[in-house]
Structures are given as structure tokens and as C-alpha cells.
């Protein structure tokens, strides 16, 4: 499968490039970066032995390299535009860029279906994180009092994380909708109670040294339950990325969430 990687200079993109190179059934045909100074990936020290063209424009890359699938790990500012361009060209997509809205997701799904093109957008590609979300969804039925704490490196641009938002959405499907905390509680410092989603609270931590971590804390009379997942290295996401690249070849629509393609 001919694969292109968008955002190859980022830490996640770097790992995706290595994953594609290591896969016997994949060929890296192009990479993309915002206003690159390089013409070829071999100008980057870590990939000096390769011969892969570098592009600064998605449309130009799709036309010249003709990839069968594009993996996008960029920024919320361009992730939606990139994904739309990829799908409109009838090319399969695997997207880990977060910040895509519900309305944009619906539009992208309609494009994918009109083009009969497979795409997977996932807020988290770590299998352990997906299991964490599924466990939390099940627990929310019995423990409606719950808060989410997500912790990421200090270069992450969006808050809350896509994983935290997806977790809250999944729990809302099984959880009795209640408003948490004391009636009439007051934030003496705005934002102290975190963001609110369907009565639940989401707290975002940004610190150097972290990668991607999340805990879902449930409370009930006389007991508590904490479900936590930690990604200590970006390698943790790569098995899910590789699985998604292969899975897009079997799809004719857009799938949101890695949990929807796991057996």
C-alpha cells in the first residue's frame, strides 16, 4: 500500500514514518510538512538514507505521489482541511489530528460515503486507551458521578484532549445525566471546576515530560473507582495506526474511534 505521512516532522509523524517503513506491506511515497525547507526526506538527519519527496501542499502531494492512504498527524488548525482534501480526491485517510468538530465530522463522513472511500479518525490510537474508554462507558451506568483528568505534554494545542471528549461522549450514552457537585457551588477562580460536558467535569493538565495520560474517577457512597491509562512513549499508538491504515482498504465510509474496528 502506497502511504503518505502528513506532519512527518512532528513527534507522532516521526513515529508514523518509522512504522510505515517497517511494514512489509506498505511503501512510503511522500511526506508533507508546513512550509518545508527540504525537498527530500533524506535532508532530515534521522532519514538520511531514504529517497522520499517532501511536499508543502496537500493537493500537490496527492497529485504527484498518488498515495492510496494518507496518515495525518498535524494540528487542529489544518487537520480538518487536510482530511477534506484527501477524501475529496478519493484517497483513504487515517487521522489522529484532534479538534475536528461534530459538524465537520458529519461533513467528512458524507464526503467519504459519496466517494466510497475508507477513512478512520481516532482521538487515540493506543489500544489500552480504547479499552479504558470502553471500561469507563460500562462503569458510568452504575457510577454516574464521574470526573475526567487528562494529562499531556505542554506542546499540545487543544484542550480538552480528543480522548477525554470521546470518553465523555461514550459515558453519556450509558450514564444517567446528573449535575455534579454541591447545589449553588461557586468557582472563586473561574475554571477551577474544569470544563462541563453533560454534567461531568473534564480537567486538562499540561506539563513537560508527559506524553498522554488519562484517568476517569468515579465516586459513590462508601466507594470509588479509578480507571487510568498511560502512554509513556508514542510507540504505544503505532499498532493502532498500522491497523487503521490496513483497515481503510476494507471500508467505504468514515469510522470515528478505534474501538469501532477492534475485534
Automatic annotation (TrEMBL):
Dihydrodipicolinate reductase C-terminal domain mapped to chain residues: 128-262
Reaction it catalyzes: (S)-2,3,4,5-tetrahydrodipicolinate + NAD(+) + H2O = (2S,4S)-4-hydroxy-2,3,4,5-tetrahydrodipicolinate + NADH + H(+); (S)-2,3,4,5-tetrahydrodipicolinate + NADP(+) + H2O = (2S,4S)-4-hydroxy-2,3,4,5-tetrahydrodipicolinate + NADPH + H(+)
A Pfam family it matches: DapB_N
Residue positions of the active site: 152 (proton donor/acceptor), 156 (proton donor)
Pathway: Amino-acid biosynthesis; L-lysine biosynthesis via DAP pathway; (S)-tetrahydrodipicolinate from L-aspartate: step 4/4
Gene3D superfamilies: Dihydrodipicolinate Reductase, domain 2, NAD(P)-binding Rossmann-like Domain
Record key words, sorted: Amino-acid biosynthesis, Cytoplasm, Diaminopimelate biosynthesis, Lysine biosynthesis, NAD, NADP, Oxidoreductase
Ligand binding ((S)-2,3,4,5-tetrahydrodipicolinate): 153, 162-163
Domain Dihydrodipicolinate reductase N-terminal: 1-125
The UniProt record lists the keyword Cytoplasm: yes
Secretion signal, residue range per the UniProt entry: none
A GO cellular component annotation in the UniProt record: cytosol
EC number: 1.17.1.8
PROSITE patterns referenced in this protein's UniProt entry, alphabetically: DAPB
One GO-annotated biological process of the protein: diaminopimelate biosynthetic process
InterPro entries noted in UniProt: DapB_C, DapB_N, DapB_N_CS, DHDPR_bac, NAD(P)-bd_dom_sf
GO MF terms, alphabetically ordered: 4-hydroxy-tetrahydrodipicolinate reductase; NAD binding; NADP binding; oxidoreductase activity, acting on CH or CH2 groups, NAD or NADP as acceptor
Assembly notes: Homotetramer.
Similarity annotation: Belongs to the DapB family.
Name of the protein this chain belongs to: 4-hydroxy-tetrahydrodipicolinate reductase
Organism: Listeria grayi DSM 20601
Lineage of origin: Bacteria, Bacillati, Bacillota, Bacilli, Bacillales
Gene: dapB
